[in-house]
Amino acid sequence: MKSRILKMLVLAIAFSSCNKKTKLDIAENHSPSESIMQDNEGLQLMTQKCYTCHSVTTKSHDAIIAPPMIAIKKRYSMQYSNRKDFINALVAYASDPKEENALMMGAINKFNVMPKQNFKKEDLTKIAAYIYDNEIETPKWFDAHFKQNHKNGQGMKNLNKT
What we know:
Layout lengths: L1 H17 L4 H5 L4 H18 L19 H11 L3 H13 L9 H7 L9 H13 L8 H8 L13
């Protein structure tokens, strides 16, 4: 009996340590299985719809055609610290990208404004939620590039923008 309880306890701890959900997700009534399914779908959508341009496999900053998703996550996280605002802002920009609404002016200068895509808002929401909730794959060159070019937010649009 003690062995069975111990096994159940170990499984519960292992399961909870793999769950990357925040307290906000629990407050939004997401069961663990719903959250995992949404994460999987968000990752799949991001891989299919975003990584063509926002590649994680490029060899350098000069070879990429759009900022990597980790850069987008870092920048939007600086402006929008809570999940709902982060998701809404990212979905709004990706739905109708315009320079005046961009947070990443360095990316605008290097790559121009993201071309308008025909994405469903529901798909963008799943992608944005995945980005917010999870660690995002980082190109090998990214950390050095970020440290070199964005010291203390240097080169980024005003963080107090509303």
